[in-house]
Amino acid sequence: MISSKKLILLTFSALGLIIVAKSDRTLSLGKDEKELVRFLTSINKPAIQSFQSEHGDILDCIDINKQLAFDHPLLKNHTIQLMPTAIPKWNINNNKNSKNGDSVPFRQDGISCPSGTVVVKRTTQEDLIQAQRLKSMGSEYSRHISPEGKNIELTGFHFAVAEYRHSVFGANVNLSMWEPEVSPTQFSSSSMLIAQGSKAQFQSIRAGWIADGFIKTGCYNILCPGFVQVSTKIPLGTLMGPVSVYHGPQYEVGIRIYKDGNTGDWWLVVYDENVGYWPNSLFTKAGLGHGASLVAYGGEVFSPVNEKSPSMGSGHFPSEGYSKAAYVNNFEVVEGGVAKKPPFTVKLFASTPNCYKASLRRKRKVWYNSIFFGGPGGCV
Predict the structure, then answer these.
(1) Which of 169, 170, 162 is nearest to 141 (CA)?
(2) What are phi and psi of 61, to 5 degrees?
(3) pLDDT in tens, 76-110
(4) CB-CB contact of 291 with 302 (8 Å)
(5) Exposure pattern of 65-89 as b/e (b: 16+ CB <10 Å)?
(6) How far, in Å, are 45, 47, 77, 269, 284 from residue 60 at the CA level?
(7) Which of left, alpha, beta for 116 (phi over 0: left; psi -120 to 50: alpha)?
(8) Rounded to 5°, angle at Cα 316 from 216 and 214
(9) Average pLDDT score over residue span 104-131
C-alpha cells in the first residue's frame, strides 16, 4: 500500500461535460516523447513568474486571458468575469462553526502572483500519464446517478453518500480531510457533486479532494479546458495538508458551488476565495443551464477487481462518530438567492454497506443533514 503522504489533492471536475466536449485532447499513453513535449507546451501557457512550492510543485503565474480554459471552442470569445455579479446570502461561514474541525490552512509562503494573472500548477509529463490513468479509472458516481445509472457497469466502484434531489441553484459543504491509503491502481475521494438533466442532457460538476496511488494526479480533467480560474492564491491540483488524525485534531475544507443568477455561470468558492467558474455557455438548457436538481456529498473509492478495495475517509465506520469517522457538514442549499438549511431531507446511499456506510445527523446548525461516512474497505 502507498500512503498519500498526509497530503491531499484539491480537485474539481465536470465529468461528462467538459471532458466529452473536448475529446480531441485525449492523450494516448503510447505517444512518443516529442509528442508529449508538444502536448505539454499546448497545456502549459507562458509563465510571467514561477515559484516552487514546499511540496516540489512548480507554480506559474500566467496571463489570465491565456489560461487553458480558453482553448475550449465554446469560450473563444468569452469575457472573463473577475467576480460573481450575484452572490447568495450565506447563513453559515465555512469552517467557523464546526464542532472542532479547523480549516486546512492553504498558503504558499513567498508566492504572490501579480495583477492580471492566475496561479496554476505546471503540468509535467508524469502528470499527463498519471491523469490519463486516473481518467481511465474514472469516477462513476456521476454516471451512477444519471438516468442510465441502472445500466452502467460499476464493478470496482463503491459509494457512501447523501443525496438531495430537489431544485437548487447551489450548495455549501465542509469536507473533512483524511489520508486513506491506496495502491497505485486505486483512489479514494470525498466531494460534492451538483447535477441536472436526463439521458444525453445529463450534466454534472463537482469539487473535493482525492487520494490516489499516483500521489500527484491533480484534477480529474487536467487535460480539458473549460473552467475559468480567477484566483491568484489557489492553484487547483496541488497537494494539501494537514489532514485529520484519528481521535485527534480534525481538519476540513469548505466548498461552495453556486449559480450566478445574472450570468448563469457556476462559481467555485474554496476557503471563501473565488477560485473560478464554469461558464454558462458550457451548459445546456436541459442540463445545468437553468439550475440543478441533485446535490450529492460523501465518499467514493475505486479498486480493480483483483484487489481489495481501499479505505474510505478515515477508514472507520460512521458509528464511531466525530474525530474517528469522516464527515461532511455545513450543508446548505441555495434557493432564491439565499443559502439555507435544506427544506427537504436527504437520502443516504451506500453501494457496499458491508465495507462502507453513511449515517445522517440532523442536530445543531452545522450538523443539519450532515453525514458521517466511510469504512475500512476490503471489498472485491
Answers:
(1) 162
(2) -95, 115
(3) 889 999 999 999 988 655 444 445 577 665 555 56
(4) no
(5) eebbbbbbeebeeeebbeebeebbe
(6) 9, 5, 24, 21, 33
(7) left
(8) 15
(9) 77
* 18-33 pLDDT tens trace: 222 222 334 444 556 7
C-alpha cell at 198: 436526463
Give the 3-state secondary structure of residue 175: strand
Specify the DSSP element, H or E, that contains 58.
strand 58-63
| Residue with grid cell 454534472, as numbered in its chain | 204
Give pLDDT, residue 263: 95
Q: What angle do CA 16, 106, 238 make, to 5 degrees?
A: 45
CA distance 117 to 49: 9
- Render pLDDT for 234-291 as a digit per residue (tens, 0 to 9): 887 777 778 899 999 999 999 999 999 999 999 999 888 899 999 999 999 999 999 9
Report the sign of the C-alpha dihedral through residues 52, 31, 10, 301, in that order. negative
DSSP type of residue 52 = E
| pLDDT value of residue 170 | 97
> Nearest 5°: phi and psi at 24?
-70, -10
Q: What is the DSSP letter of 56?
A: S
- How many other C-beta atoms lie within 10 A of the C-beta of residue 107? 10
Q: What is the residue type of 11?
A: T
What is d(CA 64, CA 119) in angstroms, rounded to the nearest whole number?
9
Residues 6+ apart with CB under 8 A from 309: 156, 158, 186, 301, 302, 303, 352, 355, 377, 378, 379, 380
Number of H helices, E strands in the chain: 4, 20
Whole-angstrom Cα distance, residue 149 to residue 153?
Answer: 9
